[in-house]
Amino acid sequence: MNNTIILERTTFSEIPIDYTWSFSDKTIKDTSYITHGYYTYPAKFIPQLAARLILENSKEGDIVIDPFMGSGTTVVESIVNNRIGIGTDINEIAYLLAKVKTTPIKTSELLQEFNNLDFDLQSRLNGQYDYFLKKAEQILPKNERIDYWFLPQQKEKLSIIFARILEIQNNDIKDFFLIAFAQILKSCSVWLQKSVKPTRDPHKKIYEPLTLFLNQSKKMLKKHFEFDKILNQSIKNNIDKFRIVKCSDSRNLPCEKDTAALIVTSPPYVTSYEYADLHQLPSLWFGYLSELSEFRKKFIGSAYKDDRKKIDLKSSLADKIVLQLGENKKGKEVKNYFADMLESFLEMKRVLKKGGRACIVIGNTEFNGVKILNAEVFQEQFENIGFKTYNIIHREIPSKMLPSTRDTKTGQFVKVTDKNLKLAYPTEYILIMEKL
Ligand SMILES: C[S@@+](CC[C@H](N)C(=O)[O-])C[C@H]1O[C@@H](n2cnc3c(N)ncnc32)[C@H](O)[C@@H]1O
Q1: Is the CB of 88 under 6 A from ligand 1?
Q2: Eight-class DSSP state of 17
Q3: Terminal CA-CA length for the chain
Q4: pTM, 2 dp
């Protein structure tokens, strides 16, 4: 581990970029190795980043936690590096995904179940279509939003696939195929491809559900075999002792106080993504979405949260930012966000042992000319609740596709499509805070 670096709380943009944290040599194959590529989860960080933080700041057998685990990158990297991985996320899809990505399954059983599925689905969809469609219709959750996103023909075929997956007896194997199903939903719907906002595209090319499902399952099978090979045998045999994933709030971690060595996380941003909307398609099929408006409020950073009473944000910079934004919707959203994040940091403090570290990957943003200095605010909040700054890393986020930036009016991620516009890659910070 490096020596402690003392940093003044100035704007972090002046910190030189450390290019060893760019991982620009990594290909998509590298970043989707073992189970990491099962599902397209927005704003996930790359496994190499999580792995380096874990290796440099903890040792084998330590507890590593991600309170905003999303697709479970930190938890996967924790167990393959012989740590105990704990993760929470408020989103049921994230929970299911992280569970599937970290659950070892016997190769022969998985393959057998895939062959059975393949055989049954071919005959149901080609031969006994009407009979199985009737059966499937009884299972499918009733929600008019499904008809909004799926044309009747795709919906029927997807229903037959979904109903067949639900017949699988072994829960781990059933969940594995549910994730394959979740991953193909966007391509089988009229959801505007590549859009993170729920937008309909009437001209979209829609793919054949069975072909997509079988191809996705095959891809995942191959990756699962890789995962099975590299996972330590004793972890494989006792997975429930080495990995705890839960669908719950970051402010209520499933961990005893003063026991964890490390937190590695990338928290949500204020009103950048509406995570509740993003995972709408699988949530609809799996029956997770009865009340979208109530569901949205649980997400930190959502624009739909109820306003809070007066609260001490434990950061004079946060107070200044909120004041600058003014008494309007945006001002309230940012205040709520910093308040929610402060509560998450207090929970991190509860579970970390003395000397334990919290690594927070976060970028800054801007609304209507007001700089939302998330990283600087978080550092101040941490220091005011009993942490010291161990290190702050300024990193570049290389993008293999179009570089993205944030719209300075809305703060949302947008792709830069103007070829003449030269845009430096966006950067972000890794705060490494140590519990005193
Ligand atoms: C930037 S993403 C994390 C991505 C993750 N690092 C990965 O590699 O997939 C932030 C996550 O925070 C979750 N989140 C938002 N509010 C939450 C809350 N109150 N408790 C726990 N998780 C929450 C979102 O559902 C989202 O998955």
Answers
A1: yes
A2: B
A3: 17
A4: 0.91
Q: Are the beta carbons of 340 and 252 closer than 8 angstroms?
A: no
Q: Which of 251, 126, 141, 275 is nearest to 197 (CA)?
A: 275
In a domain, 294, yes or no: no
- For the segment 204-219, the average pLDDT, to the nearest whole number, is 94
* Structural domain that includes position 159: 107-227
Higher pLDDT, 201 or 54: 54
Probe residue for ligand 1, chosen from 48, 89, 269, 347 as the CB with the greatest number of ligand atoms within 8 Å? 89
- Residue 89 Cβ inside 6 Å of ligand 1? The answer reads yes
Regarding the beta carbon of 94 and ligand 1, being less than 6 Å apart is answered yes
Segment 274-279 shows an average pLDDT of 75
State whether residue 371 is helix, strand or coil.
strand
Pair (246, 323) in one structural domain: yes
| Whether residue 262 is found in the same domain as residue 385 | yes
Residue 84 within a domain? yes
Asked if residue 374 has pLDDT above 80, the reply is: yes
114 Cβ contact list (under 8 Å, min separation 6): 217, 218, 221
Phi/psi at 129 (nearest 5 deg)?
-50, -55
How far is the C-alpha of 179 from the C-alpha of 185, rounded, in Å? 10
Tell me: do 265 and 409 sit in the same domain: yes
Q: Which of 100-104, 277-281, 315-319, 405-409 has the lowest mean pLDDT?
A: 405-409
